Amino acid sequence: MSGVQTPPTIREWFATDTPRSRFQARSIAFWNAWQTLSSNWLAMIGLGIIVLLVLMAVFAPWIATHPPNAQNLPGRLNPPGWEGHLLGTDELGRDVFSRIVYGARVTLYIVALVAVTAPVFGLIVGTVAGTLGGWTDRILMRITDIFLAFPRLILAMAFVAALGPGIFNAVLAIALTAWPAYARVARAETLTVRGSDYIAAARLQGAGTFRIITGHVMPMCLSSVIVRVTLDMAGIILTAAGLGFLGLGAQPPQAEWGAMISTGRQYLLSHWWVATIPGIAILTVSLGFNLLGDALRDVLDPRAATK
Amino acid sequence: MTPADIEDPRGSGRARFGSSGLPHVVKRVGGFAFSLVVTLFGLLLVTFLIARVVPLDPVLAVVGDRATQAQYEAAREAMGLDRPLAVQFVDYVGDVVTGDLGHSNLTSRPVVEDIRRTFPATLELATIATIIGVMLGIPAGVIGAVNQGRWPDHVIRVVGLLGYSMPVFWLGLVALLIFYGQLGWTAGPGRLDVTEQFIYELEVTRVTGSVIIDSALSDAWDVFRNALAHVVLPAGVLGYFSMAYISRMTRSFMLEQLGQEYVIAARVKGVPEWRVVWVHALGNAMVPLITVIALSYAGLLEGSVLTETVFAWPGLGLYITQALFAADFNAVLGGTLVIGAMFIVMNLLSDILYTLVDPRAR
Amino acid sequence: MFHVRTHLLASTVLLGSVLATPLALAETPPDTLVIATSIDDMISLDPAQSFEFSGQDQINNIYETLVELDPETLTPIPGLASEWSVSEDGMTFTFTMTEGRQFASGNPVRAQDAAFSLQRVVKLNQTPSFVIGQFGLTPENVDQKVRATDDRTLVIETDRPFAATFLYNALTAEAGSIVDMETVAANAEGEDFGNAWLSRNSAGSGPYALRSWSPNESVILEANPNWHRAGDLVMQRVFIRHVLEPATQRLLLEAGDVDMARNMTPTDVAAIRDNEGVKIEDNLRGQLYYVSANQKNEILANPQVVEALKYAIDYQGMADTIVNGTNVVHQSFLPAGFLGAIEDEPFSLDLDRARTLLTEAGYPDGFEIEMLIRNEQERIDISQAMQGTLAQVGITMSIRSVTGAEALSIYRARNHELTLQTWGPDYPDPHTNASVFALNPDNSDEAQLTGNLAWRNAYPATETTPMVEAAVVEQDEATRRGMYEEMQRISQQSSPFIILFQRIEQTAMQPNVEGFTAGGAVASAFYWPVTKTPQ
Lengths: 307, 362, 535
Hints:
The complex is a heterotrimer of chains A (307), B (362) and C (535). Chain A is an all-alpha fold and 307 residues long.
């Protein structure tokens, strides 16, 4: 705790060996991490894929060559390249390329929605349990265990059945099954910082439990949780696609990649592109998240990489 | 579900029991039995509640399209669904404690009997997939760690991540098309061909419910070979996912070990490099790996639903899924309970093994 | 750890050797018929309970009925009863049992067995009970109304002078199967008339007996040596294998692992139709696709709106593409093949006419509406195609796709708007469809006629209800036929039912398989005539 000094430049602030706050220390760590990350070409490929996905979703109306739901029954099931249909047409004569492009929006929607629900909830449960300890911890962790022991796809299916099919409900169901993992990570992280001096100091300064959790514990858990979220994204996309495959995800005619595979699988043997192309799209995007997440984990969470 | 969804071993298993009382395996088993019961009870309660709030009507699934209202009411009463929820739950728990999981509306037989038939199929699939995953994943992980940052590491990493990223139902369909449909290298969907199925029905004594083991025990080698030819493709697909997970974890555990002082010491003493890597370092890395493998195994048990659908594999995952679609909630509850229990038991086993094997924990 | 490793090594070597040997093209055993199909709907094999397509197929090959149906002419022919007659007042039917028939157990088939079988259908009061019960039989009176006067004579008394063929037709349904009374009674639990046991065992006199049924896995039937034509039976076993994925069925068929595949997609069928190694047989079945408009909905209650809908659907376009090969356009409620069926197709895609009708109805800019469907690929395709043409007349139709059980419960509670459904006849008599599409005795919510389609759509059917009731007691067949024709034409114009298609079943099989019949419009599959010439 030193006295007031002239504010450093941003570069100095990032480069200093003697960070003045936890926040600054973290920021420096992040900056260094970015330096390492950007030298990892696999991670950059992953990031590139995700950026492409975002661009595709945002500019879908300009990229797509056809309206995604425009049908043309006589022109159904035509191969890639047929009359300006870059990737062919599906069973109702809709343009597969345009549906893939619009499908990026659905995928992004799933990713975004899960990313702001499950980890946040898990983070709250985990940090509260870890900070308070005692019976709160025991009860919260027991509940976490129960959800953890559940077969996840089955739990998600049951939730969707209860809420009614649809992409929003599918995402909610996935989030409901995904949070326990974050709760565990956050709790483990909380336990390591709970007894540290600065928490004790904050407590001495009269900070309430709520403030300690939100102001001091949660930020500490963020990087582990972010790593996990990135790594989980692929799994989430795949689960959403699995629900779509079982007919519990997006409702027709919405272009959702998993549902597109599900529809296309009955043409797999005679018209390969209908199911294969959305399959490749899912594969590419989840590979993107995995590549980025894997590298992030090495960089941000050294313990996980080298234990 | 892919192994990517499986909890990071740091988070589960060991953390669950806190750090106190480590030495006494017995004590932990006692504590574990308690938490097993509590968790299973919670699992039961949650599933039961979900089953009762979903808008799927189990009565309709049984009586069908043509039933009159009177027939509907009669069936509803016969199924006990007219009683208050709390009464239904208490009765159900009472039955479960005595080993009765109720009657499946879908198959017209006791759920216990259905599970006894379907679970071995899932177990067989998951076991072979895990064997494949371990056989390929551990060497891949070690090679990746030894060559950290060089091309073998990158290749292994990308191959593994591809496994993580592929929709399993899609990979299954494509694999079936290529290896069965085009090349004819493997047998097709299902557990046996017709001829072998008859031999199995007539001559093989059911001991474990696993076709492979039972046929070997009965010396029915034709059936045994046929069963292997059938299992290899679905197990290969699942094994790929398992491999991806195991190799990634192996790599990071190996990196940790290779950085330890004893490795440097061994190298200084002139121990050959292969011995340092494959015996010393891997030997120590095996300790946390056990947890990883156990969790991956448990993940496959619950995660083979889609694979079972594509390969017409009459396992528990498929059973629960179909039961869910048909609103056959006794079957859903029973199946979920079994898989949940397996998951918890896997955790316990890896935990106990960990305590027994890890020198630090002793 | 070391043990584990050697063990794993051994396993890998084993798996490797399996992989290395390419398997020759498989062939099924010459005396066994192997069928790939989906049997996940099968919940019971008791004729008094079963009401699922796959279950009925098995029951049709395990049991025999008093009256059988000639598959060609669709007229009643002798079965377990050799002759029958009706009293002058048209209310007492007498059946004489065929001599020398035996059950698989060796017990003779007597009139007492027949009486017991029909009585238990009514007394168990499961879904199929109405097939027998509709003749005025109740659990209370059935013991008096259906009785064996001696070993060879069965008497059935009805409460109204029904058209004689109506009763005979109903008796050919699976619910009319005759079971072995002694065997069933020996396995009864409490008051269940052997229902639990018969659900998964068999006690019939038909060509096959049930050897085993593993749900979602397989059904195995074995020849019944006591069947009266056992000598003619070539296939000694029938192995029905549950395969959910249509693509998988195709792979199995092409690899020679099954003799026939019954649920392949039209696209796959079209793709292999010209292959030398496979043959396809088309069979027109009785199942109808229809869209219905709930009359509780304010918009849909307007008859001009419903008429506009009828012109805003591309029947032929769909039949030529998405359901090509599996369905043909059919617009009346009796499937082709039934007494009184008509071929009229008054509706086709006419967007201008639909627009005019909508304008007259007061919806020049269309409206928003929801269509309830069950989550099945073909239904999703059909409803999406409809979504496309309806959009062109300004109607924004959203699709609500839910599981079969949920769709049914919404439909039965009259909570849908539009819904796409299928309906299959229950027995080969026109009354089976007329009684649900064109008859509504009480349209009030309290009536809870949940099994009746007109009631489900709150359609009072005031014009046709008396006609249906008259037709079922009409003794003259020509007059009866005319009545059904007329009520279908009325229904086409004024009912909220838009009949779309009639189903064609495509069975793909090995070229050496002969004699299989999927059952036509009125019956279930026949396995026993099948032969296989050696390849």
